[in-house]
Amino acid sequence: MLPLGADGPDFDGIAAASAGCVLCEGPESWSEAGLAEALAGFWRMLRPGGLLRVVTPDLDAVVQAYLYAAPDAEAASSAMRFNAWRHAVRDRFIFNEEALRLALSRAGFVDPRRFVAGSGSDRLFWDLEPADASLLVIEARKPKEVV
Q: Which domain of life is it from (predicted)?
């Protein structure tokens, strides 16, 4: 567990290439720039071939839930529910799959793969998050050969 600052994890004292895998939960509470800094820190932390797993609310799922609320719900009440949720969680940046893949690619990660929460390429992660269809779960790797 890394201590979290207002805009991402604190990497002080973490040796380079010291981890084989990293689980990142909660990037929605950081700014876009904070996520870029965190991804750079995770990159430095991971050994070549290391795995990064990012778990965050899925913007597309949130929007779909808002747009397709129960047919008997009034538009005003669905807007109120959405805004109440946004204020309760205090998210700063909610990703959709495309935006998260782009951020991972810009940070140098390769082979991004989306998984359903509670599954993935490594059983180590399977029980660490709730099985929730509104979560965006993407795993990507630091290349084995870093140029």
A: Bacteria
**Torsion sign over Cα 125, 129, 131, 137:** negative
Q: Give the C-alpha separation, 64 to 87, whole Å.
A: 18
What SS3 state is found at 68?
A: coil
Please report the pLDDT score of residue 126 as a whole number: 77
Please determine, for residue 75, whether its predicted confidence score (pLDDT) is greater than 80. no
**Domains of the chain as residue ranges with CATH:** 4-57+91-141 (3.40.50.150)
Please state whether 29 falls in left (phi above 0), alpha (psi between -120 and 50) or beta. Answer: alpha
Residue 89's pLDDT band (cuts 50, 70, 90): low
The Cα 58–Cα 136 span in angstroms is 5
Which H helix or E strand runs over 54? strand 46-57
